[in-house]
Amino acid sequence: MSETHHQQTNSEGQKKLNRQTGADGNQQKQADYLFQAVKECEEELRAIGIPVGHVAEVRVNTRARKRWGQCRQEADGFHISISDRLLGEETREGLRDTILHELLHTCPLCGNHGAMWKYYAEYVNSRLHANVKRINSNEEKGLPPEEEARVLHRYHCAVCGQVVTKQRECKFTKNYSLYRCGVCGGRFVKDF
């Protein structure tokens, strides 16, 4: 797997470390484009008073298919990765919204999608005319609609009818009789 990423400077203005691992020219252009987009979003957030944390690394994720971005806190700061599917011209707004979303996770008390993160997201949406939220569809990101997931396992609660579907084998599918419905506490019955 080849990945390209940038390490950003700290607030004292030390030199940026631009690191490349097995990247061709196009991958380097994507990494540069993403790095610039993150810097612009950081500036937008700081301009409206959002306390963005130190981003130590920005990475293009070429493998992600189920998520748009990820923010992890490491010893040297926050590491942000963004799906390469958002780096096209048609997904410019989706990219911005995703970067803003991940940058909000760098704020104090915003490691998850709790009350403070939601407060900042609403504030950013109103001030920057963005669409920052917890989950977005392909269409909201400027991509074609995703194909409907193929359901291989379906169960329903014998008491309230709550339906649970799974796309692959997991602990639940192997031991569904040990689980109880989260709505009413009833037992599950296998449909297929």
Q: Identify the CATH class of the largest domain.
A: Alpha Beta
Percent range of helical residues: 25-40%
What can be said about the biggest beta sheet? 5 strands, mixed
Class from secondary-structure proportions: alpha+beta
The order of strands across the largest sheet is: 2-1-3-5-4
**The CATH topology of the largest domain, please?**
Zincin-like
CATH homologous superfamily (4th level) name of the largest domain = Metalloproteases ("zincins"), catalytic domain
* Low-confidence parts: 1-22
Strand fraction: 15-25%
Shape: elongated
Distance between the termini: 37 Å
How many domain modules? 2
Number of helices: 4
> What's the order of the H and E elements?
EEHEEEHHEEHE
CATH architecture of the largest domain: 2-Layer Sandwich
Would you give an account of this structure?
It contains four helices and eight strands, in the order E-E-H-E-E-E-H-H-E-E-H-E. The protein starts with a strand and ends with a strand. A hairpin with a 2-residue loop joins strand 4 (69-74) and strand 5 (77-83). The model is unreliable at 1-22 (pLDDT under 50). It has 192 residues and is of the alpha+beta class. It has a five-stranded mixed sheet. A three-stranded antiparallel sheet has the order 7-6-8, with no helix packed on it. Helix 1 packs across helix 2 (92-104). The chain has two domains: 3-141, 2-Layer Sandwich (Zincin-like), CATH 3.30.2010.10; 153-190, no CATH class.
